[in-house]
From TrEMBL:
One Pfam family from the record: HTH_31
Full protein name: Helix-turn-helix transcriptional regulator
Domain of life: Bacteria
Domain HTH cro/C1-type: start-end pairs: 18-91
Length: 274
């Protein structure tokens, strides 16, 4: 029985194979290359052609395709993706195989719900469902979420934000608040790091640091690995304590957004809205 290679070596081998297959799929004419009369032993581009168009050395690119221990920069990976005509999914996969975090480009971030996702959120009733943006703003919610999360989704523009709800209200008295708040703060911290200097993110941190001692203390810890419990209790002014299970998923085609669905965790909660 063979011994499996260490994860880093296995990933480099996968990266090498991915680059070779994508190089073979690109025709020289796709890069505007004229036929130089030389016989091509394999279909697609030569290694030196990829290296030239990506702006890297031939030897270095050869090492990459050989699975050697070299680490490309995000800029080089972007250049390779353009040269190899990768689509969005392949572009993301390339960064994953290289073990490099893909930076978020300029141009802001999603501030409105795509129409198809808004319709899905609405159709998930009777279960509460809502859509979160990278800043943890509520971009869409259905009537069930408006009932269960009333204070959150009824907040004025600029305050319809999960962190404001958790750290700027009386939520701290609810069971499980600490775990929920820390987990959502960790999610936000990761998004914050991907958008250095994004003013709306900076403003949110500044305001919450001023108004919430808990936020200020936990933000200084720089935690990005807190896990939110799937079962939680929400204290509702009219319905009482609601025990809920939460599912979070990343919608296909919208990797910066998060879809959350809540379902009752006990019979009392199941009967409460009725």
């Amino acid at each position: 029985m063979g011994v499996a290679p260490p994860p880093s070596a296995a990933r480099r081998r996968e990266l090498a194979d991915f680059l070779r297959t994508r190089r073979a799929a690109v025709r020289p004419a796709d890069l505007g290359l004229a036929d130089d009369g030389r016989r091509r032993r394999t279909p697609g581009l030569r290694r030196e052609e990829v290296a030239l168009h990506a702006g890297v050395g031939v030897s270095w690119y050869t090492w990459l395709e050989q699975g050697r221990d070299v680490t490309p920069s995000p800029q080089v990976l972007d250049a390779l993706a353009r040269t190899l005509r990768l689509d969005q999914a392949e572009h993301v996969h390339l960064f994953h195989l290289a073990g490099v975090t893909r930076p978020v480009g300029g141009g802001g971030y999603p501030r409105e719900a795509p129409q198809d996702l808004a319709e899905i959120v609405d159709a998930l009733r009777p279960h509460p469902a809502y859509l979160l943006g990278p800043r943890l703003d509520i971009l869409a919610h259905n009537p069930a979420a408006a009932l269960v999360l009333h204070d959150l989704v009824a907040a004025p523009p600029g305050r319809r934000n999960l962190l404001w709800w958790l750290f700027g209200t009386e939520w701290s008295e609810a069971p499980g608040w600490r775990e929920t708040a820390r987990a959502n703060l960790a999610d936000f911290r990761a998004e914050y790091a991907r958008r250095p200097g994004e003013q709306s993110f900076v403003d949110l941190v500044t305001e919450l640091s001023t108004t919430s001692p808990a936020f200020r203390e936990w933000w200084a810890e720089h935690d990005v690995r807190a896990y939110e419990p799937t079962r939680k209790t929400i204290r509702h002014a009219q319905l009482g304590a609601l025990a809920l299970h939460q599912l979070q998923t990343v919608p296909t085609g919208h990797p910066e957004l998060r879809l959350r669905i809540l379902v009752p965790a006990d019979e009392a909660t199941r009967a409460a809205p009725r």
